[in-house]
Amino acid sequence: MFEKLTSFPENFLWGGATAANQLEGAYLEGGKGLTTVDLIPVGPNRFPIAMGNLDSFQPKEDEFYPSHEAIDFYHRYKEDIALFAEMGFKCFRLSIAWARIFPNGDDVEPNEAGLQFYDDVFDELLKYNIEPVVTICHFDVPVHLVKIYGGWKNRKMIEFFETYAKTLFNRYKDKVKYWMTFNEINMLLHLPYIGAGIVLQEGEDKQQILYQAAHHELVASALAVKACHEIIPSAKIGCMLAAGTVYPYTSNPDDVWKAMEQDRESFFFIDVQSKGAYPGYTKRFFREHGIHIEMQPEDADILMQNTVDYIGFSYYASRCTSTDPEILKDQTEGNVFGSVKNPYLDASEWGWTIDPKGLRITCNQLHDRYGKPLFIVENGLGATDVLLDNDTVEDDYRIDYLDRHFAEMAEAIQDGVEILGYTSWGPIDLVSAGTGEMKKRYGYIYVDRNNDGTGTLRRVKKKSFHWYKEVIANQGAQYFK
Ligand code: BG6
């Protein structure tokens, strides 16, 4: 009755995760339109644009835009998928570039060449029995929708997104069983242009704009869930949270409360997507901050009746906070979320806290809060790799990071948490969403490409390639001893 598990579940979905703009390249091929991410350069203008403080509606000659070529998956997907198959992937998470399907976003008819491209990719995956896991929107909005409508500030976006999502469900209903609506939906509050195609104008009330946009995305997400359930009843559709529990720096109740409030800033989105209604703490926050959300009478029902089937999330690091201004000065980086340095933990080269046990804590927390299956759809170590003369990369640091996280994931499963699968971020090196660098590599497969766009794009297996292959082949049995 209380038997000990001996491995990850038989149907556990091992794989890797990517996003269209970070790997496809071919940014104007096959009739694709320009998206927000195609206009975010590397360099000093990157963060002001990503945060919506500087507009960017046309590529500029003197800027370098890494999404334009990325790692050229668009032309090399067969080679890449063959490598994923060699590792034994059971699934592959990818996003669809909205502007490949609707180049302007408000087009009446979809673009057949774009639809066909993903048909070809899915066929290639299915040839190897690799289940596609599809994010409908991963940090890209057709730029026309930003110019004409103001991105997710505008309620019209719900309609465009619903049409886009329905087009995908109808077209791929026989090929795709796992869907996700918005990648890291809570990122909207931190990187408004990346998260929601929002450019903030001087004098605008930022919080008001962002939470109104959040409402539009939440309704759009619920309508996509509805359409998915109607068009592909056997499919599962989830939300996607940039997760990582916030720890209090001390046991001072004020610190504990602040940590809880910061967690809730992110949980707000998932509470709505999973439980179907605005939580009381958010209503209070809106009331006390003079935020007024315009809602249509039908919105409450749409949200309540169309909740997600599973909770997808990314986990790179835990966070830490304090109410002490002195302690608050000692900040560290980490997936955009500010965090106080945790004295018990090390950090990556990019300053992201490394906390394997935090993954177990986060899994248990999400399980207790939502009672739905979880899907760990991003996790990994961004590091500088060196390609050796014998054509490999000795990335023991990456193996160590993953090994320690897998051990905690196994603990979470033994704690009773249902986890559908695990897709590590960037199984093949790709462009960093944060910095736009190639140098920040996550892959099991090395790609010969440099920050400035030079390189042959050749693919090389790293040491971790062989290691991950073994873990998958053994169903991670070593973590259940
Ligand atoms: C997540 C995003 O926030 O983190 C990915 O969903 C991103 O798109 C990943 O690439 C890692 O971040 P970065 O900045 O190292 O690429």
TrEMBL record:
InterPro entries linked to this entry: GH (IPR017853), GH_1_N_CS (IPR033132), Glyco_hydro_1 (IPR001360), Glyco_hydro_1_AS (IPR018120)
GO CC, one annotated term: cytosol
Similarity comment text for this entry: Belongs to the glycosyl hydrolase 1 family.
Organism of derivation: Paenibacillus xylanilyticus
UniProt-listed Gene3D superfamilies: Glycosidases
UniProt-annotated catalytic positions: E378 (nucleophile)
Gene, per the UniProt record: ascB
GO MF annotation list: beta-glucosidase activity
Transmembrane segments: none
Keywords for the protein's UniProt record, in alphabetical order: Glycosidase, Hydrolase
This protein's record includes keyword Transport: no
Protein name: Amygdalase
Gene Ontology BP annotations: carbohydrate catabolic process
